[in-house]
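quick one, 203 residues, struct below
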Amino acid sequence: MKMIDNIKCSAFPCADIDKKGFIVPPLDIDPAKIKLLMITEAPPPDPSEYFYAPGSPFYLRTTLQAFKEAGEVVKSIQDILGLGIYITTAIKCPKAALTISTGTLSNCAALLAKETALFPGVKVFFLGGDAAIKMMNGIWKQQTGKKVIPAGSTYKIRKEANFLGDARVFPSYTPAGKNILIEKSKMGVIARDLREALKYMRK
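---
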């Protein structure tokens, strides 16, 4: 299944994102093999730094570091996919403003809902960052009538066990981007959360 054939935005109504940078994982993938969805916040302004770009893109380097600190031997995006993990962003276009409006989050949530629905066998959702947490919580509330993740700071809510049916939901920080290098203490937190997520995925 080609992701680009299933996840499209034709209207591009949002004003606080760079519409030219719209991107979804350029994969032809078997959804049945995916057991963990890692959803980060937004793609980088430079597409050459996106997770699936050739070479050693920045978003992938910081994410690989998180996996390594979680105890996984991974050297490429293919290694991550081989574990049964699919990485995507909640917002599909790079940010053009420091904050993202509720309208933009709502528009992108419609695409994210379609994307996540393509993976019915997922055992774990790893939500990296406020946008991913907020958007997926909104999607699940529409689907089930209630929020999966309680309100509160990420540092506090990440310590609770959250479930969507039998699937475990891990709210955490995004492992991708420059901020993770600035706030190095968060990398250790992400690695601990990721270690637990992988453990649950393998049950």
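The mean pLDDT is 93.
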